[in-house]
Amino acid sequence: MPSHRAAPADFTVDALIVGGGPGGMSTAITAARVWPGRRILLVRPEETPVVPCGIPYIFGTLHGVDDDLLSSAPFRQLGGEILCDRVQHVDRETRIATLDSGTRIRWQRLVLATGTHPHQPPVPGGDRPGVFAIHKDYDVLETLFEDLLPDARRLVVVGGGFIGVEFADEVRKSGTDVAIVEQLPHLLLRNFDVEVATRVEARLREHGIQIRTGQGVTELTGTGADGAVTGVRLADGEVLPADAVLVAIGDEREVRLAHEMGLTMARGGGIWVDAFQRSREDYAIFAVGDCAFKQDLLLRRSATSLLASTAAAEGRTAGMNLFGLRNERYNAGSIAIYASQIGDLAFGCAGMTAHAARNEGFDVVVGSTEVPDHHPPTMPGTRTMTCRMVFSRSGLLLGAQVVGGPTTAEVLNAIGVAIQARLTLHDLVGFQFGSHPRLTAPAHPMALASLDALRQMSEPPSAAGPEGTGA
């Protein structure tokens, strides 16, 4: 353990949290609640950060960046402090952090919640004016909203994940012509099976969005060597005209401070942390959110999904155990839980797809159901909900996908709890739930999909069909 020799500092805190996104703020609020009387300081570069999940909606549903701000009031009401600055250097031996402003802060506990920065692929023309990525920064987003996108008649989105799909659908609401380019055979294929991905693609096409799948990008074209972008050249030679190009192919973890402190990096990416979000070298240093290593709940290996909801859960774990393990709330692993909506079509997923589970070697059974989300189905606002639940042959719930209306996310969150609790097919067939004609389906989609899987398991393999055989 490092020694603690005396060193000058401007002030001392019990906990210094670096970063004010969902992970950092969740840690701060939890620590302030669980450890009253401690001095908790959160340092972040911006006065008011944006809500990461709401960024695409700034450009359509919302009316600007000011409609997508993360409130600091709950933390401040608990006595927490926020300082707008950047941590430039951390000395583990003296427990002192030096900020850009020159301020020096001595800490007892340090939480790294430094997030990510956009991944920029080495594609020719990637630095042309009009090419941009999504930065979780107020000023950058304000420039996009006020200056770049209003003048763009044609936008090409490179990357068909959640951010790319949501951004494309929001921008087209202003009358912009939008195309999405995705290297995989379908959009959202890392999160959904083909049966669901094609439904989302169909809805996007109904909204007038062009989709090019199975295509890589070879060049972002323009006038001259450094002129503004005018097009996106695909691997097959087609050039899509563009006045602006969004590159949405993922983020890279921001781990500079961790590297400089000599913290262990996980081979799967991110700062290595234990079940309490503590670093290997120093139990006084924690990491949460996108900068921290993620371990899949089921497979117990690196998880690639970087989600605000996961960051917030890790923040609660770190905050509860910041000054001791008296709460014994630990992180058992990550579950990728996503939800989104295109028009009136909501869709979401939790855990593994059937395709991914089969690739891992699981003998998979997929239980499916379609059910009205209110009862009777003549109730105003009723939508048809599709629920696909992926089970191992032993009955363990591995994942699910839900498509429907406004209740989709809540059904999905219930499924997330079931995965985390390691519930089985037989637990879920008897799932008990509250029912109301205007609020719920006549029978819970989880129970109905589980019953369908149980039926398949009870049939001979030849009768069960391809979903039941694990083919």
Give a structural overview:
The structure is a single chain. The N terminus and C terminus are likely disordered. 25% of the residues lie in helices and 25% in strands. Helix 1 packs parallel to helix 7 and helix 11 packs across helix 12. It is globular and about 70 Å long. The strands form five sheets. Strands 1, 2, 3, 4, 5, 6 and 17 form a seven-stranded mixed β-sheet that branches.
How do the helices and strands line up, and which of them pair or pack?
Elements: E1 11-18, H1 22-34, E2 40-44, H2 73-77, E3 81-84, E4 87-91, E5 96-99, E6 104-112, E7 116-118, E8 131-132, H3 138-148, E9 154-158, H4 162-171, E10 177-182, H5 194-206, E11 210-213, E12 217-222, E13 229-234, E14 239-241, E15 244-247, E16 251-253, H6 256-260, E17 285-287, H7 308-320, E18 337-342, E19 345-351, H8 354-360, E20 364-372, E21 384-392, E22 397-404, H9 408-420, H10 425-429, H11 445-458, H12 461-469
Parallel strand pairs: 1-2, 1-6, 2-3, 6-17, 8-15, 9-10, 9-15, 10-11
Antiparallel strand pairs: 4-5, 5-6, 7-16, 12-13, 13-14, 18-19, 19-22, 20-21, 21-22
